[in-house]
Amino acid sequence: MAEKFKSGFVTLVGRPNAGKSTLINAVVGHKVAITSNTAQTTRHRFRAIVTRDDVQMIMVDTPGLHKPHDALGEELNTSAIKAMEDVDVVAFLIDASKPIGRGDEWVAAQVRAVRHARKILVISKADLVDKDTVIAQLEAARALGRWDDEVVLSSKSGFNVEGFETAVARWLPEGPKWFPDDMDTDQPFEVLVAEFIREKILRSFRDEVPHSIGVSADQIEYDRGKDMYRIYAVVYVERDSQKGIIIGRGGECIKKVGIEARHDLEQLLGCKVFLDLQVKVKKNWRRDLNQIRRFGYGEGI
After folding, report:
1. What does UniProt give as GO cellular component (predicted)?
2. Are the CB atoms for 136 and 126 separated by under 8 Å?
3. Could you report the per-residue pLDDT of 35-80, keeping only the tens digit for each?
4. Which end of the chain has fewer CB atoms surrounding its CB within 10 Å, N or C?
């Protein structure tokens, strides 16, 4: 007798840069979530859909839980905590290469407060450390809560990503396909475009500038005759000095961002892309909840 189809929702939580988005990309098999070494890379709570022969996993990516310093940080924390409500599984990611600290303990307390969900402990980035360090990290993490499953993996190398899928599927209930087989994310198209652009800025600049960046894809047109998308997007910063940094001398910096973003977008869309990037100042937008939600960050509108 054939096994019945299983489906359900799994939320990934952890401190910033624990590897949540990278793991989602590894499970999906291609890039749907942006990644960088900058905290608050993930600002949208979105779902990635993975459909196999016998299971459909809806993985909810969340902003890294952290001590907030402004309205944006508070909104991102709220989004991550709310994402643990009404799901079947919560996966708590801990970076194998960083000592467990108060931040992990605080996240673990939020996970422990969740009811009616199975909880999986995930030790990520195992490729960065030796076996003894992984074992020590696993033992320390066990003290943070009661876990239904444990997985050690490396999303970058692909080590045991399949083991994570197996662990999630084990705890999902029988259920229907919530999404079509060929759908891999519920992100609106304009949000994906804006996020791919923001990723290139995060990877090109350091210090305070990346945190001050907001991106909106204001106009997207498809030219059937030329099989080409024309995308007009705006990069927002908080100060005039940041605008100068993003643009660069003679426009060289924003041009580099545009070239790199266009390359990714062409791979995503499977056709040529014309990308027009403007840089504008919107003072102190991270302290304005209305503006934060216009960008769709955190809980959105």
Report:
1. cytosol; plasma membrane
2. no
3. 766 555 555 567 899 999 999 999 988 776 655 556 666 766 676 7
4. N
How many domains does the structure of the chain reveal?
2
Are residues 32 and 146 part of one domain? yes
Q: Single out the residue of 138, 116, 113 nearest to residue 125, CA to CA.
A: 138
Residue 221: strand, helix, or coil: strand
**Residue 117, in any domain of the structure:** yes
- What is the amino acid identity at position 62? T
**Same-domain status, 127 and 273:** no
Indicate left, alpha or beta for 17 from its phi (over 0: left) and psi (-120 to 50: alpha).
left
**Dihedral angle sign, alpha carbons of residues 132, 134, 140, 143:** negative
Secondary element (H or E) of residue 268? helix 252-269
Residues annotated in the binding site for GTP, as ranges?
A: 14-21, 61-65, 124-127
Residues forming beta bridges with residue 89, ordered by sequence position: 10, 118
Q: Is 97 inside any structural domain?
A: yes
Q: Specify binding-site residues.
A: 14-21, 61-65, 124-127
Cβ atoms of residues 224 and 205 within 8 Å: no
Q: Render pLDDT for 113-148 as a digit per residue (tens, 0 to 9).
A: 999 999 999 999 999 999 999 999 999 999 999 999
